């Protein structure tokens, strides 16, 4: 119970601990927010940042602001205590957040229910502060157990991620019965997008979406964060075509000391074979395998390995890719070798092109690189971005800031899909 009380106390502070930095003396203060992570020094670092945060006589909240916005205290407001040099104290800064409306449930209006899971319900909502649409992920709090570890993990990771291809966490609202995560709103996920296109996407759109997935994933992997649940349902898209990686509930920071990880990660269809076989020692290549499966699904309109069980999944993989060659796996015990022999088909593999008929030779080469059995030779996200198949996007974005969308490049736009259905406004001609 002591641990649960500590976690709940920590959650109640999430919406108050933010750090800011100035871009320059005349520009606005950056709106990126951070939250303290358990077991780190970030709380003290954010306190130092608050000490250096200066005020301004306006309380202006821009419509496109990320929550919480740069708050500026009105000197005439007696409820906010500032020092002689005009800086807000930490207590006053936190109070100002509450007074403006951040961290309060009444700030957000639920418009419609989008979906429901085991621990959370997602709503389309509207922020009364900025009058913009938001996605509200409402996590139910059990009286005995408190907040699920997935919600705590998602918040603690997303607080430090600021990238154009990663969904933005705006705010956290904690009440006695729920913990609500407030995200930017995007129109649909990749699965729904493919369904509305009849499963036939323009190859240019396939390239565009694949590059954005890899771009966001490379950013995560550079910070040693594993997503561990990449699938079309967790990739969100807006009407412009911007794609963002979402749902970090199963994500894990590789820098956190741990001898092994759980093998109960990644939806079955997108799970790499070493994890299917029970491996708990894995790294960033596990996400790359999932990207390969998604890439093939986007190009063909069908899941690459739609297994019903772990055994069926392994057999489907071996039908297409063959049996792993010697040296493709880490050292295995005799029992594990027996499992491989029993579960894989001993037969010549199919050609990958037979599963992705619309891909050219360069596309097939990239797909093969993403689906290597040997994790040591499997492409990294950054190397995949530089592949000839995606070269034009790589060359155009090398100098693009991480927080800038690929669509800021004039010639980049969403193409009309061959399977585009009348009445669905999700493509541009």
Structure description:
It is a single chain. Helix 6 packs antiparallel against helix 8 and helix 8 packs antiparallel against helix 11. The strands form 3 sheets. This protein has a 5-stranded antiparallel sheet, covered by helices on one side. A 3-stranded antiparallel sheet has the order 6-8-9. Strands 7-10 form a two-stranded antiparallel ribbon. The chain folds into 2 domains: 134 residues, Phosphorylase Kinase, domain 1; 221 residues, Transferase(Phosphotransferase), domain 1 (Orthogonal Bundle), CATH 1.10.510. The chain has 13 helices and 10 strands. The chain is of the alpha+beta class. The longest helix has 20 residues. 31% of the residues lie in helices and 12% in strands. The N terminus and C terminus are likely disordered.
Strand order of the largest sheet: 1-2-3-5-4
Q: Give helix and strand order, one letter per element, not per position.
A: HHHEEEHEEEHHEEEEHHHHHHH
- Structural class, from secondary structure content? alpha+beta
- The parts where pLDDT drops under 50 for at least 5 residues are 1-80, 256-261, 330-335, 421-429
Major β-sheet profile: 5 strands, antiparallel
**Which CATH class of the largest domain?**
Mainly Alpha
* Number of strand segments: 10
Q: Mean pLDDT, rounded to whole units?
A: 76
Task: Please identify, by name, the CATH architecture of the largest domain.
Answer: Orthogonal Bundle
Percent range for helical residues? 25-40%
CATH topology of the largest domain: Transferase(Phosphotransferase), domain 1
The H-level CATH homologous superfamily of the largest domain, spelled out, is Transferase(Phosphotransferase) domain 1
Can you count the helices? Answer: 13
Gyration radius, rounded: 23 Å
CA-to-CA gap between the ends?
A: 58 Å
Total number of domains: 2
Strand content: 5-15%
Name the overall outline: globular
